[in-house]
């Protein structure tokens, strides 16, 4: 399974275009433009598994930095500021990583 099995390639491209400039990434806007916010809970879990590069059951800060590259090879790396803001938005239990439930809640909020 790949992200394009769940999300439209044109929506992914539009979401990536919207945040090309450093420090322009907004997770809420990305989720909306890419169509993620309209997906079911099970589809969000599938997306989470694809983004969880090391299959640890969590998306850690190191993986989050490369979030955009999981959608398209060659996309930019998130800045340190963007990565920390993204992590803080989802990490409700303060463990320094995003679990599947936290991710789902963030995407649907």
UniProtKB/TrEMBL annotation:
Ca(2+) 2 binds at residues 91, 93, 95, 97, 102. Keywords: Calcium, Metal-binding, Repeat. Pfam families: EF-hand_7. Coiled coil: none annotated. SMART domains: EFh. The keyword Cytoplasm does not apply. CDD domains: EFh_parvalbumin_beta. One of its GO terms (cellular component) is cytoplasm. Ca(2+) 1 binds at residues 52, 54, 56, 58, 63. PROSITE patterns: EF_HAND_1 (PS00018), EF_HAND_2 (PS50222). InterPro entries: EF-hand-dom_pair, EF_Hand_1_Ca_BS, EF_hand_dom, Parvalbumin. The keyword Repeat applies. Residues 39-74, 78-109 form the EF-hand domain. GO terms for molecular function: calcium ion binding. SUPFAM superfamilies: EF-hand. In muscle, parvalbumin is thought to be involved in relaxation after contraction. It binds two calcium ions. Belongs to the parvalbumin family. This is Parvalbumin. It comes from Gopherus agassizii (Agassiz's desert tortoise).
């Amino acid at each position: 399974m790949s992200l394009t099995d769940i999300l439209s390639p044109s929506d992914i491209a539009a979401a990536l275009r919207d945040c090309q400039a450093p420090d322009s990434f907004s997770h809420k806007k990305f989720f909306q433009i890419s169509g993620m916010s309209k997906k079911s809970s099970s589809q969000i879990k599938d997306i989470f598994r694809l983004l969880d590069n090391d299959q640890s059951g969590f998306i850690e800060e190191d993986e989050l930095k490369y979030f955009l590259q999981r959608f398209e090879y060659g996309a930019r790396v998130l800045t340190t500021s963007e990565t920390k803001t993204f992590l803080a938005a989802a990490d409700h239990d303060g463990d320094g990583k995003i679990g599947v439930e936290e991710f789902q809640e963030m995407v649907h909020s």
